[in-house]
């Protein structure tokens, strides 16, 4: 099992492909440039099984329907943001792009922390709100990695000045849910390079002094 990061769109939002040796894969946060992403998946000879969204800001959802329409795969989103997919005011595209991003409804609405078993993939859903009210992270123990969306970055944390953002809540989510993972866990963020839980515990200035 392996992962690949593909930065997409003007904000270089990281989409991730988690693939199995049997040729199946899961797509995390297909944010934009749908044709580019679909072509890449096809060239790799992969068959997507699902789309998992860490949250529903426009730069993380813009290519959802391109991937879904190509392979007829289900989409997973937290219940606190299920209405954001089709609402440009909520997903932020109305304000940031001068255009509108609208995505069809998700087939699976996450209501609590749970284990997901999708084909050969086993993932733990962690509720990590703060950047947005429905932000979740997906921990894959087998590859020792967590797909953290815009909760935690290398040397930084997600912004909390957007609607539904809450700085104190984000710090609590990171402390309780992400920093409790093994220190060697790779953090695969929504923007920028990968890091590890241990590195962020040691060097991330936003996390120092938090109790």
UniProtKB/TrEMBL annotation:
Residues 12-191 form the Metallo-beta-lactamase domain. It comes from the Bacteria. Its cofactor is Zn(2+). InterPro entries: MBL_Glyoxalase_II, Metallo-B-lactamas, RibonucZ/Hydroxyglut_hydro. Keywords: Hydrolase, Metal-binding, Zinc. The keyword Kinase does not apply. GO terms for molecular function: hydrolase activity; metal ion binding. This is Glyoxylase-like metal-dependent hydrolase (Beta-lactamase superfamily II). It comes from Paranoxybacillus vitaminiphilus.
